[in-house]
Amino acid sequence: MATFVLVPGGWHGSWSFEAVVPLLERAGHTVHALTLTGLRPDDDNATVATANLDTHADDVLRLLDRAHITSATLVGHSYGGMVLSAAADRARGRVSRLVYLDAYVPRNGESCWLSTTERYRQAFILGAASTGYAVLPPAGGDPRRRPHPLASFMQTIRLTGAVDHAPRREFVYCSGWEDRTPFTEIRTRLQADPEWQVHDLPTGHNAMREAPGAVAELLT
Question: What is the reported pLDDT for 166?
């Protein structure tokens, strides 16, 4: 059985996987769903302001240490793909599988800001206008969403290449919002790479909520 570590996307917490977790557990797997630093309901302003990509990678690494995980399947949604890459690069061989669920797959020196489209860069700017350090959630959506630390969107990732040695690397493209997705170029790049397996789900971006059964089946 696998040990899953689920990393949410921007503005979201562990609750974004709430429909998938019981399906994985029912199949006999161990599941840890994270809420990243700065996105927890009791985090103060200073915590939000100082949280960056390194902070979030450390959240994953601390979990691996605390739970004594030596063969993790890391699953990251959206911004969570940035966290996956940073954590796996530093995990010293403790990651057996990476699954980028409609997520950014950065190369060394890239950031979420650089990897996304102008549409989302403008959303980051407008969302951070009131505080300068936290990006408000886009209008609509789940009321549990929290302002997201701006620094984590802006920080460039530093990769040694260790992430490329994960035994399995997979990308899931959600094709139900192709008019707005920032992930089309990533899918094209990874489809041309024989070391990657690319899947397609005919859902919107939040596949975990739209089709939790399909996501769980893909993961297992």
Answer: 97
CATH code, domain carrying 212: 3.40.50.1820
Closest to 70 (Cα-Cα) out of 16, 170, 140, 3 = 3
Q: Which domain holds residue 59?
A: 3-219
Give the residue among 124, 87, 93 at the shortest CA–CA distance from 106.
87
Q: Quick: pLDDT tens for 22-75.
A: 999 999 999 999 999 999 999 999 999 999 999 999 999 999 999 999 999 999
Q: Of all helices (H) and strands (E), which one includes residue 38?
A: none
147-162 pLDDT, tens digit each:
999 999 999 999 999 9
Under 8 Å CB-to-CB from 66, ≥6 apart: which residues? none
**DSSP string computed for 141-180:** S-TT--PEEHHHHHPPP---SGGGG-SEEEEEEEGGGTTT
Q: How far apart are the first and last CA of the chain?
A: 9
Judged by DSSP in three states, 13 sits in coil
Residue 62 has a pLDDT of: 98
CA distance 122 to 136: 12
**pTM, to two decimals:** 0.97
DSSP label of 136: P
Q: Report CA 117 to chain centroid distance, whole Å.
A: 17
Stretch (H or E) spanning 85? helix 80-90
The predicted structure's pLDDT at residue 25: 98
* Structural domain total, the chain: 1
